[in-house]
C-alpha cells in the first residue's frame, strides 16, 4: 500500500488504514520534511530516495500498527530489509525529537480527573472431575485388548 493509493480515501478509512487521521499524517510529513531540509549536508549531491517522505512515514506506521516484519514491508516496497529498518529508525527518531507527537506520561494520567469503573470477575479455578489415571479397571482393559505375542 503506497501513499498515492490511500491519499484520496475518506478520513475514517484513512485512519483505519494508518492509525492516524489525515491531518496528523500531514503534520508528521511536514515535520520530517522540515528536519530533512534543515539537516541536509549537501543540497544537490547524492541519489534521491526511491520512496517519498509520505511513503517512508507510511512504512513506519505499518511497522507499528500491523506488526509487520521488515522483510514483509521491504518486499512490498521493493527495497532491502536493512534499508527498511534504517527508514523506520530515522523517521522514528525525527518524530521523537519534534516532541509534537508524544503521549501523556504516567504523572499526567494519575493527575487527570478521570474516574474509572472497576468490574471484578471471579475467575477462580475449579477442579474437573476425571477418572483416576492408575485405576485398575482401565489398565486391565488396556492389557486385555492388546494382542498376545506367539512364540
Describe the protein's architecture and organization.
It is a single chain. 56% of the residues lie in helices and 0% in strands. It is mostly helical. The chain has a domain of 89 residues. The protein is extended. The relative contact order is 0.09. The mean pLDDT is 83.
Blueprint (SSEs and pairs):
Elements lengths: L2 H4 L4 H8 L3 H17 L14 H14 L3 H8 L3 H18 L7 H6 L24 H10 L6
Helix pairs in contact: 3-6, 4-6, 5-6
Question: Which features does this protein show?
Answer:
151 residues, mainly alpha, 8 helices
The overall strand count is 0
| Element-level helix/strand string | HHHHHHHH
Query: Class by helix and strand content?
Result: mainly alpha
What's the overall average pLDDT, rounded? 83
- Summarize the main sheet: none
- The rough form would be described as extended
N/C terminus separation: 71 Å
Evaluate the radius of gyration. Answer: 29 Å
- Poorly predicted regions: none
Helical content (DSSP H or I, runs of 4+): 55-70%
- What's the number of helices? 8
Percentage of β-strand residues: under 5%
Brief account:
The protein is an all-alpha fold. Helices cover 56% and strands 0% of the residues.
